[in-house]
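Retry 2 of 3 after timeout on previous attempt. Resubmitting C-alpha cells to design endpoint.
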C-alpha cells in the first residue's frame, strides 16, 4: 500500500482544561491524543486488533498555546510481518498567518499556516493478522519517513526479542 494512502488526521481546539502550570498545553495530553490516533490508524490499517509495543523518539519542538487549532496527522511508515510503525506529527495553525490567508480568499483550510510542534513514533503489533500489508513510499518526501520507520521498528524488535 502507498504510504500517503495510510494518512489519518484529527483536528482540535486547545482548551484551558489541558493546560500545565506554565499556561501551555500539557505534554501528556499531546502524547495521549497522538497515541489514540496512532492506535486507530494501525487498527484500520491491519483490519483487526493491535497492541502497543513501543513509544519511540518523541520530539517536543514548540509549545502549544491555549486557543490554538491543533492538527494531528498520522502515517504508517513501515511494516514488517505483524509489526506496524506509525508516525504522528502534531502542528498548529499560526494565528498570525490566518488573517493574511483570509484576505487572499483561497479555498483552503489554512494548511499554509501550519507550524510543526511535535513528532511521535509508535510501534504496534497486529494481534489478528500475522502478515500485514507492506507499506511503501510513492513520493520522495515519504522516503525519509520510511527509512526512519524501518530503523525505529528494527531497534524496537531488537529490544523486544532480546
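Retry 2 succeeded. Sequence:
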Amino acid at each position: 500500500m502507498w504510504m500517503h494512502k495510510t494518512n489519518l488526521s484529527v483536528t482540535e481546539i486547545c482548551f484551558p482544561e489541558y493546560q500545565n502550570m506554565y499556561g501551555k498545553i500539557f505534554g501528556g495530553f499531546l502524547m495521549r491524543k497522538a497515541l489514540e490516533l496512532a492506535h486507530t490508524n494501525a487498527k484500520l490499517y491491519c483490519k483487526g486488533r493491535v497492541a502497543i509495543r513501543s513509544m519511540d523518539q518523541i520530539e517536543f519542538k514548540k509549545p502549544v498555546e491555549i486557543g490554538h487549532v491543533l492538527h494531528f496527522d498520522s502515517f504508517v511508515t513501515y511494516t514488517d510481518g505483524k509489526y506496524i510503525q506509525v508516525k504522528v506529527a502534531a502542528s498548529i495553525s499560526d494565528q498570525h498567518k490566518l488573517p493574511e490567508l483570509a484576505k487572499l480568499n483561497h479555498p483552503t483550510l489554512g494548511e499554509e499556516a501550519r507550524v510543526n510542534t511535535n513528532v511521535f513514533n509508535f510501534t504496534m503489533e497486529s494481534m489478528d493478522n500475522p502478515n500485514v500489508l507492506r507499506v511503501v513510499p510513492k513520493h520522495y518526501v515519504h522516503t525519509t519517513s520510511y527509512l526512519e520507520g524501518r530503523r525505529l521498528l528494527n531497534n524496537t524488535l531488537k529490544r523486544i526479542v532480546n
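Attempt log closed. The chain has one domain: 3-161.
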